[in-house]
Specification:
The protein is about 30% helix and about 30% strand. Helix 2 crosses helix 3 and helix 4 runs antiparallel to helix 6. The relative contact order is 0.25.
Length: about 270
């Protein structure tokens, strides 16, 4: 998804989010997003914040109704000029009683995010609630924000606006921490360089995500690992190769992860398009 793809960080938090109550960041000082290194792909802007909003389907929900409303919402975003970088709808390949799909938004700054939510509440939300009544609902209590750090960009951009996203929620094992994760990222990129040299470019990309909120004691984690894929065939081949890789075992040495939680992602808004 080239530019379209990384904004699909949008792709999926809720699956592992637990019952965390943290609609807004605990602090305005988020971890700095790492600069994206040069790659064969056009440089992808790294967002300051990726925000996931849980939605529940109503009795009148349908894919057609959702598509119509996402187009309406994209019109609002363009008209209001919120500074939004990208948005997507992510549908889980599993059932979770807390939500049926995620609305994902990518922001360049805390200021842009806060200003957009204020504008939304004042100018658009009343009509939106009327238009979406019976189709889906959402609550400000179920909004979760993360600061992304890129791990790898896709070497073969997927411009379809559709893709697969998966998330793993990870906790460091005793005596381990961020340095171990950084070392693993290096090994993983070396592995992917060799894999793509042998198999050709791919739409695979990855990132780590630091929560702005405090995870609960019932569902603790230190970071979220994201993988993005162009399709199922690419994903299955990638996992098969990774499971045979030497560095795969090192991941289990320094951290324990839940997942992957898999979502289908559809981009609904892209800045400048």
């Amino acid at each position: 998804m080239s530019r379209i793809i990384i904004l699909s960080f949008l792709v999926a938090l809720g699956g592992c989010g637990g019952d965390k109550q943290a609609a807004t960041p605990a602090t305005s000082e988020a971890p700095e997003a790492a600069a994206v290194e040069a790659s064969p792909v056009a440089e992808i802007p790294v967002p300051y914040m990726v925000e996931y909003v849980w939605h529940q389907a109503g009795e009148n929900f349908s894919d057609e109704a959702l598509k119509g409303l996402t187009e309406q919402w994209a019109g609002y975003a363009s008209e209001a000029n919120w500074g939004l970088m990208m948005a997507a709808v992510n549908t889980p390949r599993f059932e979770d009683e807390r939500y049926d799909f995620l609305w994902v938004m990518m922001w360049p700054s805390q200021e842009a995010r806060d200003g957009a939510w204020s504008s939304w509440a004042e100018n658009y939300e009343p009509q939106w609630l009327e238009d979406s009544a019976g189709i889906f609902t959402y609550s400000a209590d179920n909004v979760f924000s993360f600061a992304p750090t890129p791990v790898r960009q896709p070497s073969a951009p997927n411009s379809s606006g559709m893709g697969i996203s998966e998330y793993m929620f990870c906790s460091y094992n005793e005596g381990h921490g961020a340095d171990d994760l950084a070392a693993f990222v290096g090994l993983h990129n070396e592995f992917m360089d060799a894999y793509e040299a042998a198999n050709g470019p791919s739409g695979y990309w990855a990132a780590t995500m630091a929560p702005f909120f405090e995870p609960t004691a019932e569902n603790p984690f230190d970071y979220m690992w994201f993988n993005g894929w162009s399709g199922d065939e690419e994903r299955e081949a990638g996992w098969a190769a990774y499971n045979e890789a030497a560095h795969a075992a090192t991941a289990e040495e320094f951290s324990t992860c839940n997942g992957p939680f898999i979502f289908d992602s559809r981009v609904i808004y892209m800045a400048g398009s």
